[in-house]
Batch of 3 targets.
Target 1
Amino acid sequence: MAFDGITIANITKELRETLLGGRIYKIAQPESDELLLTIKNNGAQYRLVLSADASLPLVYLTDVNKPGPMTAPGFCMLLRKHLQNARIVDITQPGLERIIHLDLEHLNELGDVCRKKLIVEIMGKHSNIIFCDDHDKIIDSIKHISGMVSSVREVLPGRDYFIPQTQDKCDPLQLSYVNLEENMRTKPMAVCKALYSSYTGLSPIIAQEICYRAGIDADMPANVLEDSALHVLYDTLSDMIGQIESGDFAPSIIYDGKEPIEFAALPLTLYSDKTTQSYDSISVVLEHYYAERSIVTRIRQKSVDLRKIVQTALERNVKKYDLQIKQMQDTEKREKYKVYGELLNTYGYNVEPGAKSMEALNYYTNETITIPLDDTLTPQENAKKYFDKYGKLKRTYEALSELTVQVKEEIEHLESILTALDIAMQEEDLVQIKEELIESGYIRRKGGTKKVKITSKPFHYVSSDGFHMYVGKNNYQNDELTFKLATGNDWWFHAKKIPGSHVIVKTEGKELPDRTFEEAARLAAYYSKGREQEKVEIDYLQKKNVKKPNGAKPGFVVYYTNYSMAIDSDISGIEQVHG
């Protein structure tokens, strides 16, 4: 989600409740565009992160200390000179702008009380941290913006500070029906876009949420809204503005499975089909959301090379398999050639020299068939020619029958590795997948390098009834769970005929309740290629009935007697054991 004006309003409220009246104890500049302020207030110590990073600007409270460089940058030294031990007298947000003002009171060299402002602008690539005096004159900023960089506003020492009005947007805190009607009627664009392009502080996702609450199609043109719909839209937006003004925030993170997809300062009812985790603090939301997103992004980046190797091998094997199937279809003519040869040997003495065909009764079907002949050959030579064709096609069929099975197994193996890459949550998970690719011959082990130490462990869950459930993250772990951890009467689960994890439920000699069967099946559905489907068919049986053929690839098993159930892949209510 965009770090919008509503999120800033929530942060401003949290900072006022936590830091107002506190004193700045330490100032550090860990990154070129980031400050870390340590503030003491009411006997407690807080750390405030102010980041003007162009790709990820943030403001939040944290417990994590981040060391600064050995030599403090000039901006940091300037702030230490003026603001060491300064008291925070006010924290405000102008309108719903993505801006926070920290009003600070400190003593100058003569012991006189002075006022300064630290202004944090969270505006994407234009983000900045600006230090001003009590007359809004810029003393310095973490980023200097000259007239050559921006024709709208210079951010340089000695310049006057002002908020640039680069877009003709209205303050939603001054909302009126007349104003909303004018904005909607004059904009031939989707209602959602008309909202966030008309009002400061509204992000696209919040605009979608407003439409959803109002029961209006977010993509319909704003200028064709009926009066009744416009009144509902006004009431919905007014209610949301009321929530913001009263500080009635509800910070949360929305998850799709285990992946965080959005965060919000207000409830996002449009994600009713997703899992929502609520928090008391917007700072905790921001810290968790971006930390978890960072993990997901980093793992995806690190798995790119492995994924490319697997995808290339998979495409090559699929092409090979398709060609083999086509060749197999061509060999279906072999029995016809065998019959031709036999009939020519039986009835060929009736054929006149130079004949181009022969009609004969097929004693296998009691039908008369026409056999093409080479008029330069005798009937016996024609028979031999057909027997030779039959023999060649038979040999091809026998060879392909074996090869297609091998290639099909290779395709299934590669698809299972792709699924394992989708499941991987940590770097050590990728290490084990890479090891499998090396041992399967897809990656060459670098000369002299030893086999790596594997630290990745299967997922561990506990069912609502207290049974321990284990999920393999890759083929090696699947084999280990099924044939080493599981005993004969433990239960085994797997998505039917699609790549996925082996799920083992340890019974400890007890009968499993229905609820545990369902939770284990949901895990098998979620950790499979079919996780996006509404329902996934899951096979389950006792482990003693699962076998591994000799020479089978990692993770490959066979079973002949099983139960099945179709179930969704929602695992949000299942307790995971960490560590």
Target 2
Amino acid sequence: MKRYGVMLDCSRNGVMKVSEVKHMIDALSKMGYNALELYTEDTFEIKDEPYFGYMRGRYTAEEIKEIDAYAISKGVELIPCIQTLAHFTSLVRHREYRDVLDVNDILLIDEPKTYQLIDKIFKTLAENFSSRLVNIGMDEAHMMGKGKFLDKYGYQDRLEVFVRHLNKVVDIAKKYGFTTHMWSDMFFRLANNGEPYGKNIKIPQHIVDKIPEDVTLAYWDYYHYNKSDYDSMFKTYSEIGAPVWFFGSVWTCCGFVPLWDKVFDTMKPAIESAIEHDIDNIFFCAWGDGGRECSYFASLPLFYALKQFSDGNFDCQKIKDGFYNLFGVDMDDFALLSKVNGAKDRREYISSMHLYNDCLLGLNDEYVKDNGAVNYAEYTKQLTAAVERTGEFSYIFDCIAALSSVLELKYDFGVRLRNAYASGKPALKPFIDECDEIINRIEKFYWKLKIMWHKENKSFGFEVQTVRIGGVIQRLKDCKERISDYLSDVVDSIEELTQDTLSHPEYDTQYFTLMSAGTI
């Protein structure tokens, strides 16, 4: 069976409401997709494991069964997508799981309690999902075998350890009737000095021989712009001999909107290569790594276009017409959303960077200088106009228009503030009122973000958005107070503004690196 699917991340703060998963299934079915992977690290209920997904909005057994039945009714196979090695970031906070922890968020291989937990996971999947396919994860276990495992067993060849664990997991999956596929990057990382991609990579034959025959390798790649890079990797997979699925991405992972240009620039050559190499199963991931700031429904035209590419249709106008006929909204309106990234190269996440960049520290102010002026006022006008014509998706445009309004002032606030400080006290006076205005705009954005969140997701996880955005507001209040104190000679300097800002080789969009140079 040829599968065209989507993977929805329901583990990074946002767990989609059952009603909204159904809404997504409706949309995917209309677009011609026939599979949906629901990525849940610990966000599903397991009997006798009360801390598994505790306070995370986990799906109950009844909810999974409801989604599963609905998917079947729409001709969509609901496939569980879990983890069985790493990415248990939230779970390992609980001391109840200390015995199964190796290091960071990685399970302890060869520990009997680890496999007891994995057995419970598969038992739960078997009870709630109709499909007997399962994505077992296994990706990005960078420090595997280097923590408690090393203390208990000493150093062992990590590829050997990884394959041993894989075989144990596959045996458990078989016990419950599942056929497995897995993110395959660890084979390449362990054989290639940590790199998951490259030309002419070779996995040792003695390791290839130990890969279970009925495991399918899921080649995920969202990073390359040249077809030859994908061709090389597919060639390597063919040499391994195991069946392979391809997973691309709609780049929702670290900001408030998808990276429109990056999706097309990376996925078009990827799909061309996959078609050429006769890859039957093609999926596209909507990740939420940065805290699930982005609405997955903002990616509908991307899902549609990528499915059309997979079917061999690369005609831009035909794709736009087809999307409009299905949803009654112009693809070009959705493309407006990506403008708030405000970068010369729209392959980067910038909107969250500018929102969270601390107003006094200016840790990313050098990026603002390098990137140049951004006409957020015009973007706000365009997005606000789009609200009136985007129908059921207008709440997304309303939210992002409000964000763009914030960035009109917040984008280069730190750069302008530091320049004013250097010019003398009179130049600082307007910034007191500007702090108030930015706060006012952020509060409006926050309420519209809350509307978007609670329409699409369970309540759990929004506390993260509250803390983040509340912190930005409070820092602006601090900034206003510091300027006032300086102007009235209560203090003789604003210490942060006396420091020169430095550039960084790679600018980060993660909240915790933008708010402070310390620990958050």
Target 3
Amino acid sequence: MALIVQKFGGTSVADTQKILAAARKAIRERRAGNQVVMVVSAMGKQTDHLIELAKELSERPNNREMDMLLSTGEQVTIALMAIALESLGYKAVSFTGAQIGIRTDATYSKARIRSISTDRMKRALDEGKIVIAAGFQGIDDDFNITTLGRGGSDTTAVALAAALQADRCDIYTDVDGVYTTDPRIVPEARRVDRISYDEMLELASMGAGVMHSRSIEFAKKFGVLVHVRSSFSDGDGTLIGPLPEREHAPVCGVALAKDETRLTVVGVPDKPGVAMQIFSKLADARIATDMIAQNSSADGKTDVSLTLQSDDAYKAREVVSQLVDEIGAESFEFDENVAKISVVGLGMANQTGVAQQMFHALFECGINIHMIATSDIKISALVSRDDAVKALRATHASFKLDQELTPEEINARSAVATSPASLDKCASARLISHLTGMEDVVVESIDLDAAQARVTLYALPDSPGLAAKVFDRVAEGHIIVDMIVQSVGRDNLANITFTIPRDELDSVMKVAQELCDTFHCSAEYDSRAAKLTVRGAGLRSHTGLAYRMFRTLGEGNVNVSVISLSERCAAVIVDEAHGETGRDNLAKEFSEETF
């Protein structure tokens, strides 16, 4: 007998007929001999309606009371679902998050799960009942109701699947799977049959709306096999697990995040510990940063640019306005008319020219890039919000993501096992017992690459096609570029920093000199750079991790020259002489999170 967790979003339970349709999907699994746990969201636009009611009374309602209010939406749905199942002749029982025993921290509206008690659910399942759980909510140590934030029902479902060691977690939604990009914007977008945890984690955090990134953190961490399916049809959907759809494809998908705001702290002293102060203040305010661009310094000063969700812009402005004088920076700037385009794929780590291809696609549409930040499987470019849709379509077309799998690819894939090759159930249980909170960061590795070189081009003309022209020349030498950071242009000029394997430096220096002659810019080389990398899941969404990383390096007098942050990888460039010290200090700092 298998245990299946099913999640139904708001559109899937928007009215009583849809509730009955969802109930029949649970009954189908029950009749197949499986135990079933359903996780449901509030009906349709009920959450939005509750928010509107609160805003009629107060512009900034109390967060605790908002959680109390919003949690009622799911309570309505679980009761109606239980009534529907019983009307169809099946035993069912509904539970709120508190009744299940979903314990969270006390961060209202963005609470994180600490533990889940499974005893009550298991008793009900053993009695032959279908369990219906309220998504999106839990309870803190003082018995206050808390909510998990955007995508909270996805998070609840995968978390319950992890805690119950379920055989599968089915996410029923209004689309029939995960697409190469948003099909509402790009009609030729293609549904993928499967996608890896790492790819889905990056796409979800970069703006893909099908799954929330915190739910994929749980899936990867605890080895939960997730199946995204349509509530309104019986199609195959998309399997999220350890394996990609195309093993060697450089890009599997493109994501657009429109609700972005860029923050730049201008003229930051380039010395150990300064970055730590910036991220410490943002972490204290629970503001998650996204793209981070800290270029190599000029004249002992550097600019630190980052992006964050527009909802956090007001709070971030308050934080940074107090911080500028404290760290000795010159000023700060906000730009709310920006959007982020990201390409993601496991295959890009070992292929040349991927960044260049993306930059060319944007250049050919006349789109200027304001910032660039990369990780090993992701490239993100910040563009004007007015150019966002055009940029998404151009990038998707450039990588030919609409093309179906060839017969050879299908045959090769069918020869590979599709079951999760991640944690087995015993390992998952050990991991849960190892953590003090189920959403704690799990650090997979802390690595040092002491054979890097860094190249910085200063005062390049900030115009469409800049990145394409630079990396065209680099790609001609078949050189694999690792980290790329383009800072925000000042006085119509921009800086670009990139890292390469050290043995490629001589070749790149010749290219850089030619670029300097062409653009009348200057170049700086560092042949003794090292890269420190922390890998895990949810590194970006855990706001305190970047702070801890920079604090640890700063306390060891290790200066950071380049920063890259994503959901699964936080990397910095330091001087080679400080590489081993930095690695050892980071290993000590994150020893309790390493599994």
